[in-house]
Amino acid sequence: MPFDPSPPSLRDRRPVAYWLFGVTAMLWVMIVLGGATRSWGSGLSIMEWAPVSGILPPLSHAEWERLFALYRQIPQYKLVNQGFGLAGFQHIFWLEWVHRLWGRLVGVAVALPLFLFWRRGLIDRRLGRRLVVLFCLGAVQGAVGWFMVASGFMADSVAVSAYRLVVHLALALVLFGAMLWTALSVETRVPAVLTGWRQMRYWLIAATGLLTLTIVAGGFVAGTKAGFTYNTFPLMDGQLVPDGYFSMTPWWRNLFENVAAVQFDHRALATATLVAFTTIGLVGLEAAPTARLRRCFIALSGAVLVQYALGMTTLLLVVPPALGTLHQGVAMILLACALVTLHGLRGARRPSL
Q: The dihedral of CA 116, 122, 125, 130: what is its sign?
């Protein structure tokens, strides 16, 4: 049975929809902050997972010294930031602290309005259950984030595990996509009937899956720091497929750990995503039956072009932190464009015989 987010008796769904769109925007900011902490090397600066007491930053010089002493024990300090002093530690600390604080604020922004709207009868049982599940997934995401960070404390490690980073990123994609879809479903309860658009909807589902795979592959690029090598485009060291693509054994490790293979795969997937969304956007724009769908296809085509150009620029400039962060943020905007367009095609039907 399809998800019906609001019963017929619900008179005004707009406050609930606005709230869910607001939470979706907060999740986007959270993902961008996560990319920024990685790009600027701040992710390992807080050595404690303190969900309650960690809300407050250090309020005394003694507390700063205590946290700095903890940081000096991990390999990243000894191998990368040796001797950068308390001021340097404070510089990387604040970004990670804001990232964690924002995660707590997202939790409050979900839980408190959920309780109030439910009590006022503006949320039915089915929507309420879905939002409770998403809230619990958000709590799990916090634990996964700490699980990821803890991998950077291991001996001879100066960064987090690429595998744990990708799990953290994938769960963020699920939360962002599910919250956006739920918000759209509350805003537009009854889909428009679109005869002859079912095939387009299937193609868009496949392209969105391809985009998701591309973003996940980008997580492995970030986790292995593959973007700091092969900084030419479209060739890699003068070749389309670089030497050493299958240099690791067993062969599957190349897909996740081999810098050459990881970067090539991300390039190939990104190019396929560009072709898929550009084609869908052009075909859809020409035949779109409503102004809203036309705007969706325009946004989809524009976003994928911007993202591809941004990815090339980031690579050619050897991953400046600001561009790397922007690249992650625009990826989520592209995903949002795809989901909004797909949601607009919910009522697609086969052509009448």
A: negative
Question: Is 112 exposed, middle or buried, given 0-12, 13-18 or 19+ CB atoms closer than 10 A?
Answer: exposed
Report the DSSP pairing between strands 194-195 and 348-349: parallel
Query: Are residues 189 and 6 in contact, defined by beta-carbon separation less than 8 angstroms?
Result: yes
Give tens-digit pLDDT for 25-47: 999 999 999 999 999 999 999 98
- CB-based contact 39:324 (threshold 8 Å): yes
pLDDT tens sequence across 148-187: 999 998 877 888 999 999 999 999 999 999 999 999 999 8
Q: Is 132 exposed, middle or buried (0-12, 13-18, 19+ CB in 10 A)?
A: middle
Cβ–Cβ under 8 Å, residues 280 and 225: no
Are 13 and 187 in contact by the 8 Å Cβ rule? The answer is yes
- pTM for this predicted structure: 0.92
Angle made by CA atoms 55, 147, 163, in degrees to the nearest 5? 135
Contacts of 110 (CB under 8 A, 6+ apart): 23, 131, 134, 135, 138
Where in the chain are the domains? 10-189, 192-353
Q: Looking at this protein, which amino acid is placed at residue 73?
A: Q
Cis amide bond preceding 351, omega within 30: no
Number of C-beta neighbours around residue 62 at 10 A: 9
Instruction: Look at the block and give the residue holding tokens 């102004």.
Output: 291
Give Cβ neighbours of residue 205 (< 8 Å, ≥ 6 apart). 342
